[in-house]
Amino acid sequence: MLSLQLQKRLPGFALDVEWSAEDEVVALFGPSGAGKTLTLHCLAGLVTPDAGRIMVNGTVFFDREAGINLPTRHRRLGYVFQGYALFPHLTVEENVGFGLKDRPRSERRRRTGETIERLGLSGLEGRPPRELSGGQQQRAALGRALAVDPDLLLLDEPLSALDAPLRRQLREELAAVIREWGKAAVLVTHDLTEAYQLADRIVVYEAGRVIQAAPKSELLWQPASENVARLMGIRNILRGAIIKTTPDLIQIRWRDHVIEAANSPSHAFQAAPESPATFCVRPEYVRLIRKDRGEPNPTIHQNLLEGEVVGEVDQGAVWTLYFRLTGGGAPSQGAYDLEIDVPRIVYELLEIGNDRRWAVFINRSSIQLLPNA
Amino acid sequence: MDFFPIALSLQVSACATALAIAIGVPLAWLLARRRFPGRDLLEAVVVLPLILPPTVLGYYLLVILGSGGPIGRLLAALGIDLVFTWKGAVIAACIGAIPLLIKAAQAGFESVDQILEHAARTLGRSEWSIFWSVTTPLAWRSLLAGGILTYCRALGDFGITLMVAGSIPGKTQTMPLAIYDYVQANQIAEANWLALIAVALVLVLLLGIGRLARVRF
Known about the structure:
By secondary structure, chain A is α+β, with helices and mostly antiparallel strands. Chain A contains 9 helices and 21 strands. Chain A is about 25% helix and about 35% strand. In chain A, a hairpin with a 2-residue loop joins strand 4 and strand 5. Chain B is globular. Chain B has helices at about 5-35, 40-45, 50, 55-65, 70-75, 85-110, 115-120, 125-155, 160-165, 175-185, 190-210. Chain B has one domain: MetI-like fold (Orthogonal Bundle). In chain B, helix 1 (about 5-35) packs antiparallel against helix 8 (about 125-155) and helix 1 (about 5-35) crosses helix 10 (about 175-185). Chain B starts with a helix and ends in a 5-residue tail after the last helix. Classes of the chains: A alpha+beta, B mainly alpha. The interface of A and B includes residues 74, 78 and 98 of A.
């Protein structure tokens, strides 16, 4: 259990955040310079907040009002720094055993040995960090942090120092290590895939503030604001006007069309008619209708729209199409109305390269309304 | 030729370097790692000996350490006499050379990435333990370079030593003072030899130890 509320002013930057988590992996996600690392430093006691309160597993780390500021060395944390911060003058074995100095010699040796073995660093005990590959350095840093049996693991951009192919492999390894050691962890990252794959809960940072904190699935499907939606990589953020809302349906006027979105009876979206509405659709949820399967059927094909592909980008496994609706008025996103992602195989089978006019549909449940700012 | 000045100089410089390390390393660490009121002033004061005329430094040392001065009286009460003794020469050489040590050590400490010290903190180490197990091992080349420079500078001190310890042959006359006396007495051969020995000593120190530890000055 971790609860954190803190404020810290630095020249040109102010951090003011509050979030909490159960025993789980939390990702602090957001652009560079949003205050994620500073939060981690405050959590570890490397930086003293100006105000606030930090509590981990019932221990007060910091409480401005009560005058409590537990020194870093008593916080029982395992901190994996960005770039790893391995001690360059010590061997792998000495690095891993560094936090065990106060333990009896036999215990120190046993724990160091166990950790090195579990992390697959056997045979590298006597090497200095500069002779290790990026992946081995990461594991040595993890080992050093885990050897002291910390209550909480802090990971600052643990994969950002690595090349892309290695990154992917190590992301999976890291996920396995975190699961296996069963640690609560706080992970700082600006990579959504990393946050999504490693964390249970995501706290979204922007400019020194938390703009949403939620379990990761909720974050992807119910972004709390346009900014969160953008940070989460949702590219079709569209503006229309409410026609009416019912407990299970929201009707929006968008361009010359009536768009219908599913409303959830449990936490229903309500808005007065004619009020502005911002909604979003993930590009992979805008679906092309095959021409060889008969005419489009409005009862199956919800939110049926017609238009033309006006641009495309080959992303490798996926093609991104820029789709412009037929009909008057300026397109809603510059030169186009919708971004559509189609798998490469679909692009090839439907010969989209030669055939530019398409009908598309969007399931009601694929449209999410964003709260008005 | 009298070898006493050489032996005395080596001894005085060794003691002065040890004293400079004892005082200078903690000061350098403070300057490199802590922000406190008066830090800028301290940073300026520690380089003063490089800039002030040696006679001015020597004069103030005499005032402070002499029998009328505050520290001098305290030392006298303890039965310690510094002025016009070889111990006075140690103090003089130390004051003259300590800026080199402090600056080198400070630069060395500053070159150690603070994230490494942070890492040690999260691993449960105390500040004292971090100093000995992280900061110093990573800054030791700079510390060694500073130590060698300090020793060489102490070997060459003239003005401050003359003011505080005098130039008493067989008692406080160090190598530079002896060279001066030889020249004054027109004993050019002796002056030549001693000057050559001084240059050789310093060169051997700088090159030999410097190369051994791959130190950059």
